[in-house]
Amino acid sequence: MYRNIIVLVFVSFALILATDGLIHLKNVSGKLSFIQREGNATYVRDRELASEVPTETKFELFDPRNTLRTAKFNYTWDFGNGEVLEGSEPYVHHNYLSSGNYTLRLRVGAQVNKSSTPLTGVYTMDITVLDPIRNIELKGPLSFQVSRNNSLAIHVDGSPPMWVCWRFLQNCVSATPTGCHLTMLYDNTFRLNHTFTALGVHCLDISARNDISKLQTSNSIFVRRDPSNNLLFILPCAGIILAILSFITVIASRPKKGKNKPQVSEYSNATYYSIKMELQPHQDIPDISSDLYVSRAEKGEVQTLLLQHGTRADSYSYRN
């Protein structure tokens, strides 16, 4: 009998404690947490999330006395982008498709038993969604001129502000550890000026990070001579070559001594003789003219006919 009384007293005391806990528990307490998984990496986020990354949003209940261990919960998630989800689990999978500022609202309801008053809790959190850095690209040509101030444009695909660190390495190697030039970037594109002092291949190492991601890349750059320097070298050489060719042309076209004698054709069927003719004046003839006609009669014979206008005509014949 005494044993039954003692058990009844303990049960009543436990019910009093449980009722007292429910009386003092006016709402459901807890906090929100975010877990993002990208590839094999897992990130625990607070108020800043990466866009287009699968996200697990979780409500962590605060119940040190286990008062709500048998309660039935209901969760209503409003992500602030027009999407609302409802369920009985303390977590939900969702991801933001674009960057921006959003307000997340969660309403939690707990029902301990049929006779108890439902407990509720409403949580609001401002969330910043950023685009992670997924690409670093060097815009424009990858060939530059030596000893000249060259301008390079670099585009970083991610949400600013971002910290960008860059350095140049000759032959893409460094004998000693070198630092980098650190720049705060408030836009996606920035320009840097650099003068290359050596020919050959160089590497531009760039690392960028924002509040949710980081990325590092390297670009190969070829440094060549200035074309104007090559032109200054080629023009004098061309002038020297042209002068030499002109000198050779003048020497070749100059006539040689002793070789300007007239040449007689080697082929001839006629024999030429010098003919001495004397013309006697004649009073009756006002004008005297002569024509020398050479004809080929036979092989080895030349007939020469001297025609005179007047009264005389003499014919001469010569044979070899």
TrEMBL record:
Ranges where the PKD domain occurs: 75-117
In the UniProt record, the signal sequence range is 1-21
- Which keywords does this chain's UniProt record carry? Glycoprotein, Membrane, Signal, Transmembrane, Transmembrane helix
Question: Taxonomically, which superkingdom?
Answer: Eukaryota
Q: Which Pfam families match?
A: PKD
Q: Which GO terms describe its cellular component?
A: plasma membrane
TM ranges: 231-252
Looking up Gene3D superfamilies in the UniProt record yields: Immunoglobulins (2.60.40.10)
Protein name, entry field: Transmembrane protein 130
From which organism does this entry originate?
A: Hucho hucho (huchen)
